[in-house]
Amino acid sequence: MSTESNPASQQPPATEAAMWAIRADEAARSVTRAFGRRLLFLPGTHIGAISIPSRGIRSLLGPWHYWWQAHYVDCLVDTGRRELAAKRKFDGDSRPSAGRLASRLVTTMRFRNFFRYVNDYYDDMAWLALSTLRLEKLAEETRKPGRRRNAYIRRKLTLQFDSASTDDLGGGTFWSTKRDFKNTPATAPVALYFARTDHRERAQALVNWLNGKLLHPDRGLYLDGLRLRKGQVILEDAIYTYNQGPILGALLELGGVENLDRAAHLVEAVARELTVPGTQVIHGDGTGDGGLFTGILIRYLALAARDQRLPETTRKAARGLVFSTAGAFWDGRWESTNDPKYPGPTFSPNPLRPASETYPAGTAVELSTQLQAWMTLEAAATLAS
Fold first, then answer.
1. Strand pairing partners for 247?
2. From CA 123, how far away is CA 344, in angstroms rounded?
3. Dihedrals phi, psi of 26, to nearest 5 degrees
4. Considering only CA atoms, which of 119, 122, 104 is closest in space to residue 64?
5. Does residue 98 contact residue 83 with C-beta atoms inside 8 Å?
6. Alpha-helix runs per DSSP H in the chain
7. How far apart are CA 176 and CA 369, in angstroms?
8. Nearest CA-CA partner of 52 in 383, 376, 367
């Protein structure tokens, strides 16, 4: 069924809403069953394996990708919100709810991170701060609050963001504790976090810094960052899809004529610059960390598509990007019927390349790429509901 035929101003038919919810549920079950596991077999823990098939105990000695886990929390919150609306668990009554898994994951991240939530990268911490803020709101709505732990995380991480957001280079947020690089990957999610926690002046200052220092004047997209090297300031002018997402979210959260106008122009720039030519599909960025990039942008495009303060043409464009990209991920999936290691659909890191090509049978599949497709399908489900 085509989603592009529905005007942005109309509610889609119930059958379409059900279709996208079913697809999002399938992605959620696939990730939680294939990648989700206990940490060191400890009961009550939950964490995402970096790839499957897992390397077993050797996985504990390698990178575990803090920020992938933070986005895993966010995806579980998305599913938890749909559980709340549908009044049923996404994976059956005998299995934990998405909200319960998210809570376990947050706790397990602390265990895996040597009993700390703080790490060396401020962007990693910003993603966790954003996801746990959403988790707290979900817990409040389900009357299962985890206020003490969530308040602790927020207090600890806010101190980190305060420390990293300095006047060096005119403002912005450092990327890491090396303090030699201020960039969009850290500044944008920290700005969004400040905006969502009522530190609006601080958020606006960070947004203003990004607009003044890293917004490309012609392309309308945000560049990577400013690096300090041997006393010189070097512009890193790469443009990444995911960087456009959290700054779009911050602009919408702050509101006001100037921010909303900038948000509308950003959606237009994304549609013009970051899609596969001839389509409304956001291009992929490969595997590894890049396996998350498209999904992160789609998450915030969905917010723009629902924001009545934006022009209808902007909302329609954002909507088209979300549904086209989600549809491409879904159409390109492959499903194993007899391999218990792959209990559901496997998605390609590139929405327009089939997973049978990018992940042929027997190859290792990365968590980041599956989270990306899952969050994209969740974004489509929010617009179809």
1. none
2. 31
3. -65, -40
4. 119
5. yes
6. 14-34, 66-86, 98-112, 122-141, 147-164, 184-196, 200-213, 241-254, 257-273, 293-306, 312-331, 355-358, 367-384
7. 24
8. 367
Residue 4 lies in a domain: no
Over residues 307-345, the pLDDT tens digits come to: 999 999 999 999 999 999 999 999 999 997 777 777 789
Q: The domain that contains 363 carries what CATH number?
A: 1.50.10.20
Task: Provide the sign of the torsion angle of the four alpha carbons 51, 78, 385, 312, taken in this order.
Answer: negative
Spell out the residues 6+ positions from residue 94 whose beta carbon is closer than 8 angstroms to its own.
Answer: none
The answer to whether residues 171 and 205 touch, using CB atoms and an 8 Å cutoff, is yes
Q: Residue 281 pLDDT more than 60?
A: yes
How far apart are alpha carbons 175 and 291 in whole angstroms?
Answer: 20
Average pLDDT of the chain is: 93
What kind and span of H or E run contains 36? strand 36-37
pTM flag (> 0.85): yes
Residue 5: inside a domain, yes or no?
Answer: no
Region 359-382 average pLDDT: 96
Per-residue pLDDT band at 9 (split at 50, 70, 90) = very low
Mean pLDDT of all residues in 270-282: 98
63 pLDDT band (50/70/90 cuts)?
confident
pLDDT (tens digit per residue) in 181-211? 999 999 999 999 999 999 999 999 999 999 9
Q: Is the dihedral of CA 33, 35, 40, 44 positive or negative?
A: negative
Instruction: Print the domain residue range for 279.
Output: 15-384
- CA trace torsion 245, 267, 249, 168 (10° rounding): 70
d(CA 208, CA 215): 10
Tokens for 153?
A: 């995380």
Helices (H), 35-183: 66-86, 98-112, 122-141, 147-164
Mean pLDDT of 343-357: 95
In a domain, 6, yes or no: no
Q: Among 105, 119, 104, which residue's Cα sits nearest to residue 71? A: 105
Decide: residue 258, CB within 10 A, 0-12 exposed, 13-18 middle, 19+ buried. middle
The structural domain count of the chain equals 1
Task: Please report whether residue 7 resides in a domain.
Answer: no
